[in-house]
Amino acid sequence: MFNKKVIVWDWNGTLLDDVGYCVDCINVLLKKRGLATVDTATYKEIFTFPVIEYYKSVGFDLKEEGFEKPAMEFISLYYQNFSQTKLFPCVKEVLEHFKKQGFKHMVLSAMEHKSLVKTLKNKGILSYFDEVTGVGDHYGSSKEETGKQLMKNMKVSSDEVVIIGDTLHDKQVADTLGVDLILVSTGHNSKQRLLSAHPVVIDQLKEVTSLLTTA
Question: What kind of fold does domain 2-17+86-214 have according to CATH?
Answer without folding.
Answer: Rossmann fold (3.40.50)
